[in-house]
Amino acid sequence: MEQWTRREDERLLTGRGRYVADIEVPGCLDAVFVRSEVGHGTVRAVDCAAARNVPGVVGAWSAADLSEPPSCGPAASGRMGLPPVPYTLLARLSTEEAVAGREWPALAKDRVRYAGEAVAVVLGEDRYRAEDGAAEVSFRIDPLPAVVTPFAAAADSVRLFDGLSNIAFQGEAGQPIEESVWQEAAVVVEGRYRQQLLMPTPMECRTILAVPEGDRLTVWSGHQMPHRLRRELASLLGWPVDRVRVVVPDTGGAFGSKSAAFPEFVVVACLAVKLGRAVRWIEDRLESMLVATRGRGQDQRVRLAADADGRLLGYELKIDADVGAYPHLGVGLPMQTAWMATGPYATPKVHATVRSVLTNTMVTYPYRGAGRPEATIALERAMDVLARRLGMDPAELRRRNFVPPDSFPYRTPTGRCYDSGNYAAALDLALETLDYGTWRAEQARRRTDPDALPLGIGLSCYVERSGGEPGGLHEFGGIEVGADGTVTARCGAAPSGQGHETVFSALVAGTLGVDEGRVRLVEGDTDRQPEGVGSFASRSAQVAGAMLQHASRLLIDEARERAARLWDVSVDEVRWSDGAVHAAKGGSVTMGLAELVKATGPLRVDDRFEAGMAFPFGAHAAVAEVDPELGTVRLLRVVAVDDCGVVLNPTIVRGQALGSAVQGIGQALYEGIPYDDGVPMVASGLLDYLLPTFTEVPPIEIRDMCTPSPSTPLGAKGAGESGCIGTPAAIVNAVADALQIADPDLLQMPLTPDVVWRAARAPKREEVR
Known about the structure:
CATH topology of the largest domain: Aldehyde Oxidoreductase, domain 4
Shape: globular
Number of domains: 3
CATH superfamily of the largest domain: Aldehyde oxidase/xanthine dehydrogenase, molybdopterin binding domain
Helix content: 25-40%
Radius of gyration: 28 Å
Structural class: alpha+beta
Strand content: 15-25%
CATH architecture of the largest domain: 2-Layer Sandwich
Largest sheet: 7 strands, mixed
Number of strands: 30
């Protein structure tokens, strides 16, 4: 293990990882979906007859073919038609009205509402034969007008569901702000910002393999929430949950995009049961770019007021969110932006409103950061505009308004209760690491040199929420000791590349005082760990880690009680250290775990542990050089200071910070989904959707602080989303600072050369004074 940074590395880097696509099941059929080529239209006909005659094709079905409950032999259920996609909604939101009448069909029957929506499925003896069959499916869709932005869709001139508004949900956080606040403020700044739709783009796309086994169904999937998937599939089939097993093997990333039961999952599971044969679907890259979940997608209007000294008085945020064609989890997701609208500032009055608008795009779903990047970008861009209007250094403006360290726990006007923080210290460390004064001097020099390229410095301070919402801040698991002394730690989380094997095994070993090599981690298997919540919302260390520490301590208590009975002494006379029980008196009686199991029987504890919500924070800074003639942006330096409380593994946390910062760079400069008449322009794959590569990544310096969270015994807060939250605003602010444009609204992400070139030709601030 010494050769590898993580326990997983040797297996994954030597090609011995086992992903869903690597699992071989005799007689397994491959599914290929036939998809709409238009973004909105009426389905007039779908004919699968020719596909069924293709050699190697086992079957082909449209929605009409699967509308009747099939006879499924001994596994039959009266509910085995093709049900709609299940909805799992945020517990804090009453969004049932958003769903009613807007169900997401597993296969489109009457209307398609986004490009790529499936109208038929073909099963073949292998993927090649299934593809051949899919090419023979004929269908006719009469195009309808498509709306792909919240602004266009909110007018309801084109309705996705007859008789229902495209505005599927409305909500607010905080209280409306009196008009006198704006009238009496020394300075009020306004802005409009677009958070473009993004693709999560994990290395491994979505996968599912459904294997009937007697009267049970085993499902293999790279999924973030296997227990939720088990419940949803069992409900769709009309089965008790113990007839469905979900297993998560090695998974190549997720970033929020693998935590639902998707239309393809519903079809695969139902057909596997219908045919009594294994069926799998392995999404390819181009398919993923067309129909995988989207992230972000908000149109924002902001208004920020301050007095003459730069003290914030009020902040208003209006959000029109693009939630895609169906109101799945994304319909309530923008409330995360509203709840986090205050950021790190003690603003006395804050009001955020949300409209979730249906558009002819693929469904919006949580993507790394899930609502918090959107909140940070809107507020931090407004803070820089305000600083320029006041003639104040943007760092000083932020310092004057931070929530002070002695104010925690701090309840925001939007209802969040921040657990702990030291926001000024994070900014100071970022400025020191960046060498802020030197870069400001270089900027001043360049502004006097007509031949020098403009240079800008951007800041972004953020607070985020980690762990999940109330009602979901718990996890299940347990610890078991075998007769050979092997410690098995079971956890309801699911890995998708975060290093759980390394972090959780070390945590259990450290708590018990045993060698890490003795600890085996079991997760992502609903048979071996019957209850669980999953991995999302940066909850692994904060919630699942705390659960494993809790279970380890319960095991120690049980071991001490057993030893006390065995030695006929009180529990107080038995102590625990170095993975063994010891008699407190005399010290000569010692028994290791293996001996204790042999003497007293199997040793196992199981429990449910609940943590509290935590609020990581940080300050990011970027230095950008802009070429006004070419519209290019060259990042010279990025600094990320993050405080995620107590760090369990510095190497893994650093990797998370670096990876998420690179994704933040992608949002700021490169990534975006262009549409033409309702169809995303991604036909050339990653040549059309640009991701930052090693060539585009600047020097990124990661620094950390530690303000422990009182909400969990570990003191840990979430670490996985910091870069996506803090980095984009810093980069956009740096470009705006370099160009000194009068209207910063001209800079809308991604800052492509065309966007920057046009902004560079707009009036400068000094030209409009």
